[in-house]
Amino acid sequence: MTALPLPSDLIRRAQAADPQALATIYEHFAPRVYRYAYGYVNDYDLASDIQSEVFLRMLESIGNYEDRGWSISSWIYRITQARTMDTLRSKQRYGCAKLDEENVLIDGPEILMGTAFENKALRRAVQRLCAPQRRVILLRHVYGLSIEETARQMGRSIGSVKATHHRAIVRLNALMRTELEE
Question: Where does the record place the RNA polymerase sigma factor 70 region 4 type domain (predicted)?
Answer without folding.
Answer: 121-172
